Amino acid sequence: MGKELSRSFDIEVVNREYKLVGLCETGNFPDAFPELAVEVQRAFWDRRKEIKHGKDYEVLFSPFMCNGIIATYFGCVEVTEIADVPEGMLAFVLPETTYVKVLCTNKTIGEGHDKLHEWIRQNGYEPQLYGSSQIEIYYIDEEADEEPVEILFPVSKVNP
């Protein structure tokens, strides 16, 4: 497993660009959540190795966008370059963005989101969703009951 389990909710600010290839589905929010997110992730997982130039096929990137009415969920692999995108999939680049990142697990993801939003409020940041996306990164270990997860939330500094 590439990441150790973290139960301490370590938080840091990172700047990154992501090149991703995968599947997505859109549904009513909150009615379709979390079932639709899980559905697209499972469908993608079965097809992930069709993608060329994947960095790590055991890491599931799950960006999502929600306006409170509808939500779009993705299942993706990070790639070194975008080429030969498999049929039915899409490729996109999330440009370099400042993210606040928290480490948690698949069993503590709700608490991870809570800690992240609390930290953002207390440290002079605000959400910056236009031109970016929230991302959950799952380090898959099909034999483990609990897996490491990173949650990234795009932000900007208030009055920098």
UniProtKB/TrEMBL annotation:
Pfam (any one): GyrI-like
Annotated AraC effector-binding domain residues: 9-156
SUPFAM superfamilies: Probable bacterial effector-binding domain (SSF55136)
Membrane spanning stretches: none
Domain of life: Bacteria
UniProt name for this protein: AraC effector-binding domain-containing protein
